[in-house]
Fold this protein.
Amino acid sequence: MSTSGLNMSRRIRRTPYTDRVEQHGVRGFSVVNHMLLPKAFQPTVEEDYWHLREHVQLWDVSCQRQVQITGPDAARLVQWMTPRNISRARVGQCMYVPLVDDKGGMVNDPVLLKLAEDRFWLSIADSDVLLWAKGLALGARLDVTVVEPDISILSVQGPKAEDLMAKVFGEAVRNIRFFNFDFVDFNGTRQLVQRGGYSKQGGFEIYLNNGQLGSALWDLVWEAGRAFNMTPGCPNLIERIEGGLLSYGNEFTLENNPLECGLAKFCTLDGSVDFLGLKALQAIAAQGHEREMRGVLFDGGPGPTCGKPWPVMAGDQQVGQITSAMWSPRLKRNVGLSMIARSHWAPGQAVSVHCADGVIRPGEVSALPFA
Ligand code: THG
């Protein structure tokens, strides 16, 4: 049984695609938003990596749950939660939005979809935004409804994604621009398709609005994918790190603010946008944040799995901790993500990484994304 190692129960939610993922021989799961996320299919992450860069993959990322906010105060609530100015977003547009609390701490980093002037989805990373949004709405007596709708994202990632999607859903999908969405017909149902996804190889996400249709959607895309050398896949650790895509709970938590996360460009702090953490982030910005997200390139051959943070040292001073790392078969070095202290965050600064196998691997700080 492919779920061995995880004791399954109703709390760990299956997805509409889990049956198919198991049939394809998934080799393990993680749990995100209380829902299964496939972790591997090919024998090695490297094989998946090269395939993702050259062909196209089908990913069950249903764990990217939607928090739907509707009603007269919907835009107000969304803006209250994020320092990014959403006032000029058009219907059909997506935005990557940091969510912060009153202290400026990161609550989540979802993709925002504007479905109508009074209707939004937050496509969330791994934290309970549904409860946070409901609590804020109740406390502030906002006229909104906050629910988790029956939406399950099937992601098509890789350089051949556009040709495959055009074959399955028609040529019009080619006109969808990055971080925009449109609707396609699927067996007489209307489904939202967004260009984007959790890789830098190009792709689309299908926001299936009826879990009963999961296997049928998987099968349709899978059959068409045969001509494109499609494989089942999942977010790839090597590709994600190289691309500088951050993972909530790994690279950053509620303890971090968006400036530390390198998300300053998504923060309007001049007071023209009113949100929950404005005062706190203004104070942090005035003071200057003390650490910031960077890449670390390091040698010493492939390391172990980074299951717990690895200290990043400069001499005997700890200047950071690696929270995700992997051997890059392309760069022929290890690539890692770490917040780095201001004193050492300039690219090129020499550091050493104290890995869990006891080996101290020498390296240097890098800008993100890695070249
Ligand atoms: N797709 C959807 N929902 C998601 C993710 C996703 N929710 C959870 C998680 N992933 C959120 N995190 C990210 C992080 C980065 C991006 C998307 C979601 C991303 N960033 C672009 C980049 O870095 O190139 C550009 C962002 C921008 O410029 O606006 O795509 O993958 N549905």
